[in-house]
C-alpha cells in the first residue's frame, strides 16, 4: 500500500475514533469510575471489536468487488451518502453529551466486557467501515494490504482510547474536552462531508 494512501486511511480512522459518541462515553465512564486500568482495558477491548468489524468489512468488500462490481458501486455511493449524513449530524451536534459521562464503580473485567459490547452492538460502526474501507479496497488487493488496513483501524482506535484513559486518570483533560466538544464535532463534520464529496467525485 502506498504511503500516501495509508496516511489517508490513518487520518480517517483517527477522525472516526476521536469523534464523540457512545464509545468515548464508555471509556470515560470506566476511567472515571475505576481509574487508569479499567479505562485502558476498555479502550483495548473496544479496539478488538473494531478490528473484528474491519476484518469482516475488508473480507466482504473484496468478494463484492470481484464478483459484483455494480453492487460495489452502489455500496460506495451509499457509503458516501452515509458519511455526508454523519457529517451533517456532527455539525448540528452541541457540546457533546458523550463527554458528560458519569463515573460508576467499575473493574477491568467489566471494562473489557463493555468495550467489546459497545463496539459489536453498534450497527453504525459496520456502516462506517463499509463507507470508509470501500475507498481503500481494490479487486487486486492482496492479503498483506488488507491486513494493513485492519491493523491500522484497530491500532489507531486502541491508541486513541488508551491515550484518553491515561490522560484522564491523572489530569484535567476532561473539562478541556468538554469545553471544546463543539469544535471537535464541527471539525469532524467538515472532514466527513469532504470525504463524502471526494468519493462522489471519484
TrEMBL record:
<feature type="signal peptide">
    <location>
        <begin position="1"/>
        <end position="25"/>
    </location>
</feature>
<feature type="transmembrane region" description="Helical">
    <location>
        <begin position="143"/>
        <end position="163"/>
    </location>
</feature>
<keyword id="KW-1003">Cell membrane</keyword>
<dbReference type="Pfam" id="PF01810">
    <property type="entry name" value="LysE"/>
</dbReference>
<dbReference type="GO" id="GO:0015171">
    <property type="term" value="F:amino acid transmembrane transporter activity"/>
</dbReference>
<feature type="transmembrane region" description="Helical">
    <location>
        <begin position="70"/>
        <end position="88"/>
    </location>
</feature>
<feature type="transmembrane region" description="Helical">
    <location>
        <begin position="183"/>
        <end position="201"/>
    </location>
</feature>
<protein>
    <submittedName>
        <fullName>Threonine/homoserine/homoserine lactone efflux protein</fullName>
    </submittedName>
</protein>
<feature type="transmembrane region" description="Helical">
    <location>
        <begin position="116"/>
        <end position="136"/>
    </location>
</feature>
<keyword id="KW-0812">Transmembrane</keyword>
<keyword id="KW-0472">Membrane</keyword>
<keyword id="KW-1133">Transmembrane helix</keyword>
<dbReference type="InterPro" id="IPR001123">
    <property type="entry name" value="LeuE-type"/>
</dbReference>
<feature type="transmembrane region" description="Helical">
    <location>
        <begin position="41"/>
        <end position="63"/>
    </location>
</feature>
<dbReference type="GO" id="GO:0005886">
    <property type="term" value="C:plasma membrane"/>
</dbReference>
<keyword id="KW-0732">Signal</keyword>
